[in-house]
Fold:
Amino acid sequence: MPQEKPDTPASISGPGKIIAVGGAKGGIGKSLFVANLGVLLSQMGKRIVLVDLDLGGSNLHLYMGVWSLTSRIDDFLDKNVENIHDILTPTKYGPLLIGGGGGKLGAANIHYSRKQKLLKAIKTIDADYVILDLGGDTTYNILDFYLSADQGFVLTTCDPASYLDAYGFIKTSLYRKLTRLFSPESSYYNHRDGLVDQLIKDHIFTNTADNGNRIDALLDALVQEKPVYHGIIKGLLDNFRPGVVVTMVEKEDQAVDLITRLRKVSGKILSVELNHFGCVPFEKSIQQSAKELVPSVAKAPDGTFAKALRRIALKMEMA
Ligand SMILES: Nc1ncnc2c1ncn2[C@@H]1O[C@H](COP(=O)(O)OP(=O)(O)OP(=O)(O)O)[C@@H](O)[C@H]1O
Ligand SMILES: [Mg+2]
Structure:
């Protein structure tokens, strides 16, 4: 029986680490975070590639000071170029960029085979960090991009709707991971077990009042029915450790309160431990630098936003 291993590419094929930035709400600062984190890590001497995987609403290039793209993900998916390295766009601020789709109808709903092609290619990118900017929802494509990373970040503001969406993102990505336990891409594919598969699906898709869909109820059932898989799923849960970042923070105590609640509910219902990476302050000047197409950390390297992001970058480096 194989050991649970992360669905990660970088650990297999290259020295780099894949970081995915999600959170199921639009407009909470994901793209701005990706761009500025990329610039900071690049200033720290790291080779960075940023990938705009918000395929239906790509705008990461603007945050990186690139007004118009001459190549984008579509060029690779449509086979206009052979290699993903052929669509890298240089930026003034250090990171290389892979720009997103050109806004075609249905661009976000890429077919399974195109998604697999993209995931495979991302794993070959030659960089210290490949940072994926995800769209603000929980479609299977977004969840699969998120789960392909070595480290996933979930962003939230202190707004209750954003908090609920962040929890929803963590929950659905965990559910996606569990339901893909026996998928063809999984190391357990050759050890498919119908009963375990059914227990997982019953747990996830049937809302029973007595277990409240708690993951520990699934673990209890596995102990009874299939103890070997209890250990496997426990390992999978231990490996699933979303990094949470609170963005647009105006009052630090609100962010602390939010993290405490998010941690509590994720632990209780999902048996998932969260890793709090830090908070990003709300700054009016950021909106101005976004309008000027200059990354804030390049414009104000000693500002509070840059300092907060630098702390997160250092924590990432140590993780
Ligand atoms: N820390 C911040 N302080 C002030 N404004 C911010 C901050 N972070 C982001 N913004 C502003 O919020 C807006 C949305 O940011 P961004 O595009 O990064 O969100 P997003 O989560 O990527 O949205 P989407 O899911 O739609 O792609 C932008 O105008 C940006 O300048
Ligand atoms: Mg965005």
